[in-house]
Every structure is written in structure tokens, then in C-alpha cells.
Design a protein that fits this description.
- This protein is α/β, with parallel strands linked by helices.
- It folds into 2 domains: about 90 residues, no CATH class; about 220 residues, Alpha-Beta Complex (DHBP synthase).
- The protein is about 40% helix and about 15% strand.
- The chain is built from 11 helices and 11 strands.
- The strands form 2 sheets. Strands 3-11-10-4-5-9-6-8-7 form a 9-stranded mixed sheet, with helices on both faces. The protein has a two-stranded parallel ribbon with strand order 1-2.
- Strand 10 and strand 11 form a beta hairpin.
- The longest helix is centred in the first third of the chain and has 28 residues.
- It is globular and about 60 Å long.
Length: about 325
């Protein structure tokens, strides 16, 4: 057993890999057996293990199913929603609407208006700017391109464990030490821990070998070869060292040691504000993706309210806080 603050050895890496490989093989055997029992080409994965993005990626790659769906919250809370929908269809003759089901929104939590945000800012004695939405998007995209780390608080809180752009920490994926900085000074965890890119859906195929859209950040996809950097042979035996000491790709903040990423694809219908920001960042930098991680520090839940966002901002090295169209600087 390794303590959180102890050094990570090759043995720890080997054990973690062995566990992951076994989990993937078990899941592949289960879904293969499920396919043999049913002619359906559609698979829905649920349960906490369905948050294992690498295993989900293996299921996609297998080609056993035409469509694989993992909801935004595949654990117990998401299963409760699925059970309620099923009961509604079976017992109350509620008409099914496949379009609505396919476009299910993960943004089901609390929303906060201008009055609540302004009161919270004033109470905590923070100075702020209120900008028109287009101007706010331009300012934040520019700050991200200059290496600033942004706490992004918009609309309703996400349902499920993934930050999908309403309670997120955002940063530039191109910066070599951005991952280590966020882990060390904001998340308070090991420097190798990975982050996900959110990328414009229209551009995703140009950068990753996608087999499916990934709006809920539930799959691992390989980065295309032209964006990878050749790995020096000295680092092959110890992947953490490789990641920390060598710029592994053009997007090092979100590239894993095997050149994959836990991708979130985004179109304008899913999250218009984040899509506008990403589109502006792409126009400014030529890069269609940014780092997206949950808005919280280690051992704390994702922030929900403006006061929680301010506390996280105050007690971490996040550079800028955006509360809807209010911008707060340190």
C-alpha cells in the first residue's frame, strides 16, 4: 500500500497497469457475452466501472456494437434517473421521445442569477467587472492563451462526476508545465494525474482517432501521430518520468503517456457559452481545444454555488474567476 505523499515507483506503475488490463479484459468478455445473447447493435454501460474511460474505449474499438452509450452519470444516481424514465414509460404511457433522450442535458443542478452573484461578490469584498457576453468570451480566450488558469462558473451545475463546462477549471493545453502546475498548486495531488481536453466536435477527427462523439468525457481516444513527439528511449521504462521530463505531444497538458486523451467533444447545442469560448480560442490560437477539469481542490466536491466558487478561487492558485459574465481577478 502506497501513502499519498510517498514516491511512486516502477512497482506501483506495474501494479496499476496490471489491474487496469484485467478490468478491461473482464469488461470485454462481459460485453461479448451480452452481444451473443442479443441481436441489438446498441450497448448502454452503467455502474461506477463505466467511468473507466480506457475500458470504454476498448469496448468501442472492439466493433461489437454499432453504438455504445455511457451516460453523464453512469453510477447509482444516473441509474435512478434511468429507472424513473423506464417506470414512466411502462406505467404511465408517457410517449418516448428519442430525440430528447439522445440530447439529454447533463446540466440539471442549481442556477444563480446576477443578483445572487453580485451579493456574494460584495459580501466577500471582491472587486469585479461585468461584461457583455461577447466581450467576456474575448477576454477569457485571450487570458487562456497567455497561460492563465480560469475558474469557469456558468448556468446550472453538471449532474454526475465530470465537469462538462459549467463548473470547470480551464487552461491552455499547449503549455508544457500546465498539468503539473494545476495538480500541484490547485488540485493538491500527484503531478502525473491526467486532465481532459474539451475540443470542438467539428475538429475532433482532425486530432484524435475517434470512433464516436464523446460529449460526456467517457472515452479514451488516441492522439494522431502528427501531433505526437518521439519519445527518447531512455524514458521508455518509466512512463511517469517520460511525462514529466519530456514534451510528449503538441498538447502535453492533456496527453497521457500512451498518447491517448480522455476527450470531451462539444457542439453549440450542448453548451453554447463554452462552445463560444472554445471557438474564440481556436480563432485566436489555431488550437481547437482547451484543458477542462472539475472546479474543486483535493478532497472537496465540485463547487456548486458562487460562494463555493469564490472560496476555491481564494484558496488556490486559480488566476481568474468567471461567474456567468462577472470576471474577478486576483
Amino acid at each position: 500500500m502506497r501513502n499519498n505523499d510517498s514516491e511512486i515507483s516502477q512497482e506501483h506503475c506495474d501494479l496499476a497497469l496490471a489491474i487496469q488490463v484485467i478490468i478491461e479484459e473482464i469488461i470485454l468478455k462481459l460485453v461479448t457475452y451480452a452481444r451473443s445473447l442479443n441481436r441489438s447493435e446498441n450497448l448502454c454501460l452503467a455502474g461506477g466501472v463505466a467511468l473507466n474511460c480506457a475500458a470504454n474505449g476498448r469496448v468501442l474499438e472492439s466493433g461489437l456494437f454499432k453504438n455504445v452509450h455511457v451516460p453523464c452519470s453512469p453510477g447509482d444516481s444516473g441509474s435512478a434517473i434511468g429507472s424513473a424514465l423506464l417506470a414512466s414509460y411502462q406505467n404511465f404511457t408517457t410517449p418516448r421521445n428519442p430525440i430528447n433522450e439522445r440530447n439529454f442535458s447533463p446540466y440539471l443542478g442549481n442556477d444563480y442569477g446576477e443578483i445572487e452573484i453580485e451579493l456574494t461578490l460584495s459580501k466577500n469584498q471582491f472587486s469585479y467587472e461585468l461584461l457583455a457576453e461577447e466581450r467576456m468570451t474575448d477576454v477569457v480566450a485571450m487570458e487562456l492563451s497567455m497561460g492563465k488558469i480560469v475558474g469557469w462558473f456558468q448556468g446550472r451545475t453538471e449532474f454526475g462526476p465530470r465537469a462538462l463546462g459549467n463548473r470547470s477549471i480551464l487552461a491552455d493545453v499547449r503549455l508544457e508545465h500546465q498539468q503539473d502546475k494545476i495538480n500541484r498548486y490547485i488540485k493538491g495531488r500527484e503531478s502525473f494525474r491526467p486532465f481532459a481536453p474539451v475540443i470542438l466536435e467539428s475538429e475532433a477527427d482532425n486530432y484524435y482517432s475517434l470512433t464516436s462523439p464523446s460529449p460526456f468525457m467517457q472515452y479514451i481516444f488516441p492522439l494522431k501521430n502528427e501531433y505526437r513527439n518521439t519519445t527518447p528511449p531512455d524514458f521508455d521504462e518509466f512512463p511517469i518520468k517520460k511525462k514529466q521530463e519530456f514534451k510528449i505531444s503538441e498538447f502535453p497538458a492533456t496527453t497521457h503517456v500512451d498518447f491517448s486523451s480522455r476527450v470531451q467533444t462539444l457542439n453549440s447545442n450542448q453548451n453554447k457559452k463554452l462552445w463560444n469560448l472554445l471557438t474564440t480560442f481556436y480563432r485566436l490560437t489555431g488550437c481547437p481545444m482547451i484543458l477542462n477539469t472539475s472546479f474543486n481542490v483535493n478532497n472537496e466536491p465540485i463547487v456548486n454555488s458562487p460562494s463555493e466558487a469564490l472560496n476555491c478561487f481564494r484558496n488556490s492558485q486559480i488566476d481568474i474567476l468567471v461567474l456567468n459574465n462577472y470576471i474577478v481577478y486576483k
